[in-house]
Structures are given as C-alpha cells and as structure tokens.
Specification:
387 residues; alpha/beta; TIM Barrel; 12 helices; glucan exo-1,3-beta-glucosidase activity; signal; Glyco_hydro_5; EC 3.2.1.58
Length: 387
C-alpha cells in the first residue's frame, strides 16, 4: 500500500502496465496492422476489406500468455486493458465485435500468473476526445444524442460479466471512460454529472463489493472534481480517480530540461496527488511514460527539445524522441532512468498505484525493452530515490 495513502483503497498497491493497441487499435503502435489501407483508426480500419481476418490475427498474436509471463517476471502485479464499447454493442457502426473473448482469455492468463486486471473503457460512443485511440479520430460527439446512456449500457454489460464474485479474485477495477476531453464539444459539468450517474448504475450491476470504479480526471485538477468527490465520499475506496501525468504535450513541459522534468515529477506529491489524499479518494497514474522531450549531450547535460537536427550543437548529442533506445548512449539511458525513478518514487509514496504506457511500442514507450535495457528498474519496485 502507498505509505501516505494507505487506507482508502480495497486493493493492494498496484504496479502495472497497459496492454494498449491490442483490443483498441492504435496505428502509431502497430503500423503493420494498417499496411495496405488508408485507415487511421479502428472505425476506418474495421470497414476495410479483410479487416476481420486481420483483426483476428492481431488479437491472437500481438499479446499472448508468454508475454504476460514476461511482464509478471518484472515485478508487475496488474494489467490495465483498454477495450472499446463496440465489443459489447456495435450496432449501426463499422466496428467489428469479438474483442471481449480475448479480454476474457487475458483475464484467465492473469489469474494463472497472480496478476490483477483493470478493464478500461478506452473508446466510447461518439468518441469522448476525437483522438484515434478512442476508436474514431476527428469526432467528439460523446455528449450528443444518447451516447452517454449508450456508454453506461456498455459499462453495465462489462460489470454484469466481470463484476461478479467469480472474477473477484482477479478483476480489481473498471474505468468508466478514458481521457474524456473537458473542452471542445464536451461540457465538463455534464461529464461530472455523468460520472455520478454512471458510478451508481454500474455499481448496481456488480456483485463484487471490492470492485473499484474509476474515472479519468479529464485533465482537470482535483479541485475541479471537488463536487463529485464530495458526493461519492464515503464509498470506502470503491470510487477512484485516474490521472495521466505525461510531461510531453504542452509548450511548458517541452521547455524543460531533464532536471526540471525530474523536479516536476517529484512535486506531483503535492501538486497532483495530495488533494485526492486529503479527500480520501484513491488515485492512480493510469498512464505514464519514460519519455520527455529532451536532448542529452555527451557530457550528460540535457537540453529541452525534440529534434537533434534543431537542438543539438555538439557531436554525440541525442534527443530521446528521435533516437531509437537501442542506440541510446549511457548518458541518455541514465537521464531517462532518473526521470523514471522520480515518477516511481512519487507514485509509490503518494498514489494507490500506476500503469506504465505501454507494455510494447516504439521507442521509450516499450516497457519490456526498458527493463531489458536498464532504463526501467527490474523489479519495478527497485527504483533509486531521486526526489
């Protein structure tokens, strides 16, 4: 359990990885699946000729029991598995069903390896954020028509199956929705009202009294969730929040050198996690990464930037974002490891757990490669204290 947040969760401390791009396609992680098509997301891919056979092959080969055992050997104790609503109702869409059978298979594998599973509704009707990882890029119609209710309907189907006592030893949580935008066509107030409605409806469909229902923070600070947290206070840890503290996607973050990235990760203790601690609400880092947009000089000093052709001024300088980890220098690996260790130290002390994104992927997004190459500790709990 977290040392500073020990009593708010019915589950043990979670050290996990995401099994992304498996049951919800993400082209940047698995470009080979999309070869020969103009598809950009699951919506367009599933409409292409031969999609059913390609999906079946991908589901059967991308993630298997051998890979799960490799993950378990690193000290990981849980998997966060994204899935789309269309696995439970694809009516009126080009989406192909069938993913739930593979989710069920993974749950049984996890049980055999003594891992826990968190089911993450990664794609919602209408798309909750307009990103390709929601299933449909460019659309953000989640709050239009009856899509909010359809999302709850899909969650109820998940909870009715996986929230039973039969799965109580392995399923620890269901995430109501992943990364709903709080801008554009999404109204944040409506998102919060939906959260309470969804929590109560899904809770009523579960038998497992310890099952957590988790909501992503919509990239809003805890203070902006205070009304929801107060209404769901007293659930004995059965409601939790998920935050994804990447330091990659804002101009402010991309202006930092690695020392500043490390300092910011250490400061999450008060800036990010303490408000949930004070509200007695469990909080998880449901996604995080080894990546920061920095460049590393041969002497080990770092610069802010993403491209060696634009930033690096001396021979041997490497930028994390555009250099394959197989070719990282000792100094680059050391700087990436410092950032990883800072995040792990903060998560272990101030959160209820975390899930690295992703177990497999390009560059610094590959957990198993990180362990093999030493920029992720193994076992995962053997991080250096840098904060």
């Amino acid at each position: 359990m977290s040392k500073n947040n020990p009593h708010f969760s019915p589950t043990p401390f979670i050290r996990g990885v995401n099994i992304g791009a498996w049951l919800v396609l993400e082209k940047w992680i698995t470009p080979s699946v999309f070869e020969g098509t103009d598809a950009v997301d699951q919506w367009t891919f599933d409409a292409t000729p031969g999609a059913r056979d390609k999906l079946t092959t991908h589901w059967s080969t991308f993630f298997d029991q051998t890979e799960l055992r490799r993950i378990a050997d690193t000290g990981i104790n849980a998997l966060r598995i994204p899935i789309g609503y269309w696995a439970y109702d694809n009516t009126g869409t080009p989406y192909l069903s069938g993913a739930d059978a593979y989710l069920e298979r993974a749950v049984h594998w996890a049980r055999e390896s003594h891992l826990k599973v968190w089911i993450d509704l990664h794609g919602a009707p209408g798309s909750q954020n307009g990103n390709n990882h929601s299933g449909r890029a460019g659309s953000m119609d989640w709050q239009e028509d009856d899509n909010l209710q359809k999302t709850i309907d899909a969650l109820i189907k998940i909870a009715t199956k996986y929230g039973t006592s039969a799965y109580g030893d392995v399923i620890i949580g269901i995430e109501l929705i992943n990364e709903p935008s709080s801008w554009g066509k999404n109204n944040f107030t409506k998102t919060k009202s939906w959260t309470i409605q969804a929590y109560r409806a899904v809770r009523a469909a579960t038998q497992n009294t310890k099952l957590q229902l988790i909501m992503h923070d919509s990239f809003q600070p805890a203070a902006n969730w205070s009304d929801v947290l107060s209404q769901l206070f007293g659930q004995r840890g059965k409601f939790a929040m998920d935050t994804h503290p990447y330091q990659l996607y804002t101009d402010a973050d991309n202006a930092l050198n690695q020392d500043e990235h490390v300092s910011k990760a250490c400061a999450w203790s008060t800036s990010l996690f303490k408000p949930y601690h004070d509200a007695r609400i469990p909080v998880y880092a449901g996604e995080w990464s080894a990546n920061s947009n920095v460049c590393v000089n041969p002497d080990g000093s770092t610069l802010n930037g993403t491209s060696s052709s634009q930033i690096c001024k001396v021979a041997g300088c490497q930028c994390v974002a555009d250099t394959d980890p197989d070719n990282w220098s000792v100094h680059t690996k050391t700087q990436v490891r410092r950032y990883v260790d800072a995040q792990l130290q903060t998560f272990e002390k101030w959160s209820n757990g975390y899930f690295f994104w992703n177990w497999k992927g390009p560059g610094g997004w590959n957990f198993l490669n990180g362990v093999a190459q030493g920029w992720i500790p193994s076992p995962i709990s053997s991080f250096a204290k840098v904060c």
